[in-house]
Amino acid sequence: MSIQNWPFHTVLVANRGEIAVRVLRTVRKLGLKGAVVYHAADRNTAAVKMADVAIEITGATPVASYLDGAQIIAAAQACGAGAIHPGYGFLSENKSFCEAVEAAGIRFIGPTPQQIELMGDKVRARNFVQKAGFPVAPSAIEDDDPASFVERARAVGAPLLIKPSAGGGGKGMRIVRDLALLAQEIERGRSEGQRYFGDGRLYAERYIENPRHIEVQVLGDGQGAVVHVFERECSVQRRFQKIVEETPSPALDAALREKICETAAGIARSIGYRNAGTVEFIFGQGGEFYFLEMNTRLQVEHPVTEEITGIDLVHEQLRIAAGEALGYGQTDVKSSGHAIEFRIYAEDPARGYTPTTGPVLLLHPPQGEGVRWDSGILQGGEVTSAFDPMIAKLIIRGRDRSEAIARADVALRDTVLLGCKTNTAFLRRLIAHPAFVAGDVHTGFLDANPQIAAEPALREESLQALLAAAALSTRPMRDVADTVPDMQAAMGGWRN
Amino acid sequence: MKRIESKLNTASSEFAANAAHNRRLAEAFREKQRAVRHDRPQRDIDRLRQQNKLLVRERLELLLDPGTPFLELSSLAANEAYGGEVPGAAVVTGIGIVSGREVLINAGDGAVKGGAWYPLTVKKAVRALDIAIENRLPVVHLCDSAGGFLPLQAELFADKYYAGRIFRNQCILSKMGVQQVSVVLGHCTAGGAYVPGLSDYNVIVRGTGAIFLAGPPLVKAATGEEVSVEELGGCDMHTSVSGTADYPASSEEEAIAIARDIVAQFKRPQKTLIEYLPPEAPYYDPGELYGVLPRDIKQQFDMKEVIARLVDGSRFHEYQPNYGKTLICGYAHLWGYKIGILANNGVLFNDSSLKGAHFIELCNQNKTPILFLQNITGFMVGREYERRGITKDGAKMLMAVSCSEVPKFTVMCHGSFGAGNYGMSGRAFDSRFLFSWPQSQISVMGAEQAANTLADVKIRQLAREGKKLSQEQIDAIRDPVLGEFKRKQSAYWSTSEIWDDGMLDPVDTRNALGIALSAALNTPIADPRYGVFRL
Amino acid sequence: MQHAFKLGEAEHNLALSRSAKAYRLHLDGQLIDIDLKTGADGRAWLTVGERHLPVVIATRGDEVFVHLEGEAYALRYQHPLDRLAAQAHGGAEDSIRAPMPGSIVALSVQAGEAVSKGQTLLVMESMKMETTISAPRDGVIAAIRYEKGQTFDRDAVLLSLEPLS
């Protein structure tokens, strides 16, 4: 369903890392020119290397440069880009940017500014969805009456989840189990919200114990057609951030799947949604689910959906942005097999998942049947603390879940990244856990099973091997050994 | 080169009896060595530990490259002296590998009498530095000495080869461009202060190391000045004020690590090129040497069986196999190095002496180091042999041995009696290294022969006075002489007196010679030049 | 044996020597025959005793990174001279280091200020979370190395403390 005559010939990717590479791949596959903006810190990355045009942008910090809409629009104009793909994060859900792009006569590959605005504010989104007749969790909203917020939050009852109204991606979220700490936690949350989003308003909702995170991929052409592209389960999280995402969800039977997917499609339909989007639900152990939020952009975990449906979601985004109608209906969307995505983070799970930094001295991505490696890093590059610690995604496809898990174990084992610690060994421990194998996980799973994050004791023989490898790779040690004359080396530690 | 065909019957009862006997001797030697190395009065060990000092053996292990050999020299020096109270003569010397370089190590043993220098301590240290000079070996001194042992000062201070020779040798080494590093791990007082002082580099440990010509008590006595050890000659003073010491260290471990790094800066020597083949283990098991050596010093055995258990592949090119057969001469490789071997298979006759002298000249001509394997009762005596010129033939051999320019190595395998000791490059003939096997014996003649000779003199003297001695009286004269002779011809005596560079378990001989050969090749080999051969 | 590698918090003393054919590892009183045959792009065959293992190795400065049996490990070499000098100077750690990479959100103290144990020194932000760094003991702030907003790597010295005079 590709188009012959695109209304734009160059697409600028206003992002970095693996997603910039991912978008550029489709852009170039379609015969379009791919441009990318980059901060100097990203000069030696895959996106910059593969783009037809790469334009440097600057800012007070590396992150700030990717948030500088004016510079990015200027870059798009400079390279004659007719469309901007915002990726995820950064300006992808920024209404003013979206407006400014369109005002500059450039297509924004995303939803309308109004849709961004509606869904970008959690409180407004929630109210809208509730009014449209879809299920939401009990909550208290600061905006409704700031003076009584703390009391109303208290009235919802513990456990409570406090989130910044303007937030997303888990930033500034806190669980309050002890209401005595409520005021203090609200204060903290407000401070973080203010810092991240320039907006300290909060909202609080009932925290569902041991919930699953299930989300539904939707596609809308803004001309009335909306389909869902099945669900993704993203329950394995640490600090409210997803680590492993898969589809189909092991928690859903056919009926429940249809119900949750249709709910998502209904929400998207109710706003005449344009673009690829994701409706996130919180899913209780009893099968109940509530609307959480809608992300009006491409998700990090979109590849698993692509792997089981064969749909190139970036291609669909480009078509929709080009003004194409979707051109197919729900029954045309089919899936087969199972796909799991692993987020490769530069972090140390055993030290509270703290981010790690370092050079990428060696990088051997895994290969094999059903293995997809989406990454923006290159051997010789550097992982810095300037950006999010996610450095790659490993997506594994199998005929069924167990085949996918088995392939994942091999692929994770074969993933070599030296110079900066990553979570690959942790991911292997995770997928070997019986609960994961059984599909029996929830968003608190890792907190409840801290031993998965803990580094297992090193076996004696592994230690020997490591020290042997290290000693033989260390010049001062090798020099001491190598300067010993042959005869004395052969005699060894002989004493008379 | 073809392999020696061993004629040894390893299944024989003779072999088994020899093996059992010699293994016992080797074990007894090992036990003595163990005691010398490790048995120290607990209070001395406690004192060192309190001072955060390591034992000398611990220091050595820190100094040496891991997994490399250490040829300890004269491990049983002074073992028969001073009532056995100065094990190893209170100093450890030897050749080891430090930062990949062959070095000579001279390490005082602070756990023996505070590391005081006894006469044999001085002799051992001087000999070690002679070895360094002869073989151009860099030296690492680990200094921890209380100074000269005053009650015996007359036997260690002033003579040509007494303590002054240590410093003289250090200067000569320096003049030759052979580098030295000292690690000051204890006090270096008086003469001892010159050991670090004369080294190219030195390291000193803060707190325990000190260098001064006189310690605080002597200073107080001499001038009335009261001064602490640290102020007078401590680490910080010497490394920041006087410049007497170069590198400060906060612990012995650090000091030794610094010394290792210093040695790593030494230029490695260009070895003298001699014939070389890749090394090969002996075809015959060196462990069978125990069965080769007879239990009786007077009993003859085939030295070829010894050669077969020392040299590469047991291969041997024999020179003049049918002439002068009591002296085996020929070429072999040992740890790859081509050597010439002279080995006794009986008394030296005229032909064997001439053969030996000729072969030594051959080795000098083609720059082949020589190994002497001694089992010699001497040159043949008697009218017939004097008429044939045994003395002048022996003199030819001594001339060849003495003037030899190639490095020589001697192993006292069994007996070493009379002038045979000289002809086969005994201690006086400047072998680069000389080692003894535990059962070997050295004396001007056999013990019983000597005791009988002395008894005969006495008997004849008394006979002239008309007295006749009973057998008991004869025994009373003879037995003490025999006892004294036996004690002093024993290898334990010679090694205690440092007539050799140490006793070896026979199975260790191959490695010891390998290390010795390698060290010897640091020095170029000059063209041969001799005195006058009496023809 | 004076060479050491740090693996995590643990320090392992070891030595390497050459054998007739390859190398020997001296570890905890054991001698283990080892060898490393290197191939392209960091891949290598490691021999440890009787075992033959495929490994991937990269080095940078004193760091050695080894991918072994599906896991990546980072070892830090400690040169004997560094290690022994550090042992000698030992004592209380006066540098307060970053537990993780991040940036300074707030500084609560100034250089020269006396602080008591447990007092908040600064608030840092890492991975979207705030972390408070407090004084490990009583002392005086000797120097502050980062200003508000500045980013740093893990183990960076954030500030140093000297004893109360």
TrEMBL record, chain A:
Entry keywords, A to Z: ATP-binding, Biotin, Ligase, Nucleotide-binding
Keyword ATP-binding on entry: yes
All copies of domain ATP-grasp, residue ranges: 126-322
One annotated GO molecular function: ligase activity
UniProt domain Biotin carboxylation: residue ranges: 7-451
One Pfam family matching this protein: Biotin_carb_C
Source superkingdom: Bacteria
The name this protein goes by in its record: Acetyl-CoA/propionyl-CoA carboxylase, biotin carboxylase, biotin carboxyl carrier protein
From TrEMBL, chain B:
GO cellular component, one term: methylcrotonoyl-CoA carboxylase complex
Coiled-coil ranges (or none): none
Domain named CoA carboxyltransferase N-terminal: residues: 21-278
One of the GO biological process terms: L-leucine catabolic process
Any GO molecular function: methylcrotonoyl-CoA carboxylase activity
Pfam families from the UniProt entry: Carboxyl_trans
Ranges for domain CoA carboxyltransferase C-terminal: 269-527
PANTHER family: ACETYL, PROPIONYL, PYRUVATE, AND GLUTACONYL CARBOXYLASE-RELATED (PTHR22855), METHYLCROTONOYL-COA CARBOXYLASE BETA CHAIN, MITOCHONDRIAL (PTHR22855:SF13)
Protein name: 3-methylcrotonyl-CoA carboxylase beta subunit
Organism, scientific name: Solimonas aquatica
Taxonomic lineage: Bacteria, Pseudomonadati, Pseudomonadota, Gammaproteobacteria, Nevskiales
Automatic annotation (TrEMBL), chain C:
InterPro entries for this protein: Biotin_Carboxyl_Carrier/Decarb, Biotin_lipoyl, Single_hybrid_motif
Domain of life of the source: Bacteria
Domain annotation Lipoyl-binding: ranges: 87-162
Residue stretches in coiled coil: none
Residues making up the signal peptide according to the UniProt record: none
The entry's keywords: Biotin
Any Pfam family hit: Biotin_lipoyl
Name of the protein: Biotin-requiring enzyme
Organism taxonomic ancestry: Bacteria, Pseudomonadati, Pseudomonadota, Gammaproteobacteria, Nevskiales
